[in-house]
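Teaching assistant here, posting this on the class forum so everyone can see the example we discussed in section. The complex has two components, and the goal was to see what a joint structure prediction looks like when all of them are supplied at once.
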Amino acid sequence: MAKNIRDEFQRWEKTTLNKVLSKAPEREPSFKTTSGIELKRLSSPLDTEDIDYPEDLGFPGEFPFTRGVQPTMYRGRLWTMRQYAGFATPEETNKRYKYLLDHGQTGLSVAFDLPTQIGYDSDHPLAEGEVGKVGVAIDTLKDMEILFDGIPLDKVSTSMTINSTAAILLTMYIAVAEKQGVKSEILQGTIQNEVLKEYAARGTYIFPPLESMRIVTDIFAFCKDRVPRWNTISISGYHMREAGCTAVQEVAFTLADGIAYVEAAIKAGLDVDSFASRLAFFFCCHNTFIEEVAKFRAARRLWARIMKERFKAKKDDSCMLRFHTQTAGCSLTAQQPDNNVVRVAFQALAAVLGGTQSLHTNSRDEAYALPTEDSVRIALRTQQIIAYESGVADMIDPLGGSYAVEDLTNEIEKKSIEYIEKIEAMGGAIKAIESGYIQGEIGDSAYQYQKEIEAKKRIIVGLNQFQIEEGALKDVLRIQPEVEQFQKEKLSKVKKERNNGRVKETLAVLKKAAQGTENVVLPILEAVRAYASVGEISDTLREVFGEYKER
Amino acid sequence: MPRKIRVLVAKPGLDGHDRGAKVIARALRDAGMEVIYTGIRQTPEQIANAAIQEGVDIVGLSSLSGAHLALFPKVVELLKEKGADDIVVFGGGIVPADDIPVLKKTGIREIFQPGASTEDIIKYIKETVKTV
C-alpha cells in the first residue's frame, strides 16, 4: 500500500500540484512552526507509516497515554474550569471566588500577591507598592480563613500558584480545613511548588536551588501520608513559554525540570511509585493550533517513557502526565482588546483537543490590568461553549490519527529529546539553570519572536496589521492603594492578639529542623497554627538557608 | 565619532516578568547603545544609585505587576535628591492609560504600553537624549 501511495504522491506533486505552483507560488517559500519545525505541505500515510500503534499511541488511560490519561476523557467528566484569580484583600477575593463558583466554575485557583510569594509581609519595605497587586495578600492564617470563608473545602479543589512559600500556604490551607472540620486526607488541589522555573523565568525564588529542592521534597514526603490526594507539584512550562521559549523548548525544559524533581525525591529516599502519581504539570497554550495540540500529546508520551524507562516506575499512574493549561498571556494585545476573546477561544480549543485536565482562559483586558468581572465571565463562558456546544468533548482525542498531528507529535517528541539530552550532558536541569543556559535559550527565542513581529514576518492582527485608530480601554480593574494599609493594620492586630510566646517557640523548632535534616513542613504547620506570618516563617528559613542572588 | 548613548534598563519592585526588559536591553544594544540591565527585584534606591554610578543618560523602568504608580516616581525623586535630574526616566509595562498622565506629572517622561515596538523605543531614546 505504502508503495502505491508513494507513487501516487509523487505523481500528484509532478502533475496537479506543479501545474498550480508554476503559475502561483505559495504565500511563503517555507512554513515553519514557532519551534522552527518545517511544516510539510501535505501530510499523508507516508508520514505515519513508522508509527507502531499499540506502542506509540495505545489507548486512552493506558501507557503511554498519547491519546489521553483517562479511559473516557471528557465523555466521563469535563475538564476542570479553573480561573486563576486573586487580588487586593482576602475579603475581596473571597467575593470573586463566590462569584466564579456561582457562575459554574468547578475549581478554585488562587493568585497570591508578590510579597506573599516571596515571603515578605505586607508591612515589609520591599512590599511597598506590590501589596494585593498581582494577587491576594496573605500575611497570616487569619487572612486564609477570610479567603475561604463560606467555601466548603471538602467540596472544591483548589490550586495555588505558590512556590518558594508553598509549604506555608499549603499548611495554612490545611489549618483552615481543620477549622471547617475537614480532614487533610480528603483535601484536593495543587500547589505549584516548582522552584526551578522560578530561577529560569518567573522570578519568585527565595533560597538557593539546593535548599529549595529540599523543601520541595519535604513537601512530597509530608503529603504522601497526610494529604494523599493533593498534587504536590505542578511542573511548569507555562512561565518559560510566556518568557519567550518555543513549544519544543517548553516540553523539553519542563520535562528536564521534572526529571530533576524525580531524581531529588529518589535521592531523598522516596520510592518512585510512592510520589510520582501526585506530580502534575502546567503548560501554556499559544496561537499555533496544530503545533499546540501535538505538543500536549508529545509531552504525555515522552513523560510516560521517561518514567518507565529511566525511573523504572512500576505503576501506570506514575507515568501519567496530567496537566493544567492556561492560554497564553503574552499573546494578548492591548490593541483591539475584544480580539483577545477570539484568540483565547482558539487556544482553549487546542488545549481541550490536546487533552488537558483543567483550564484557565485569559480575559480580554489583561494587557491592561487584572480582569474585570465581565471579562472573566466571557473567559469562563468560552470554556463552557467549547464544553457544551462545540461537540469536541464528546469524542476522545478526535485529532488522533490525523497524519499532520501524528507527524508533528513525533517531531516535537524527537526535538524535545535532543534538548533533554543536551541538558543531561550539562549535568541536568539544575546545572543548566545555574549556568544560565536555559535562560539564554528562552531569551534568544523571545528576541527572535519580537524581531519577527517588527519585521512583519509574523502577523499579529490589530498590532502590526489591520490596525485601527482607537481610544484606550477605560474600564479596567484598579487595586486601591488603601489595600496596603488595610493589610498592615490587620497584621498588626493579629500580632497583638496571638500568643507571641507560642510563635517564638514554633519558629525556634522550625529553625532547628531546617538546620538539621528533619522534614520542615510539620514545624511550619505548627507555626502557621500559632498565627506566625508568612514573613516570619520565611525569615526563619532565610537565616538558615540564605538567599539566592540572580547571576 | 559621537559617544554612545548609555541606558540603564531596570526592574523596580518584586515583579519577575523580565521578558520585555531583556528584549529591549538587547534591541538597544543592537542599536549601538551601551546598556546596563539591573536584573529583577531592585529598589528605587538601588536603581537611582546604579544610574548615577554608571553615568547613564537615560533610565528605562519596567513593571508588569501594577506597582508602577508607587515605584516609578520614587526613582525620579531620588535622582533629583542626588542632584542627577539630568538623567531622563521613562517606563513601560502593564500600565493602564489613565495612569500615564499621572506618571508624567511626576517626571516620568514617557510610557510605552504593550505592543510598543523596540524601534519606537530606540527612536524615542535617540531623540530624547540628543535634546537634553
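For the discussion questions: The mean pLDDT of chain B is 95. Residues 68 and 109 of chain B are 14 Å apart (CA to CA). Think about how each of these relates to the inputs above.
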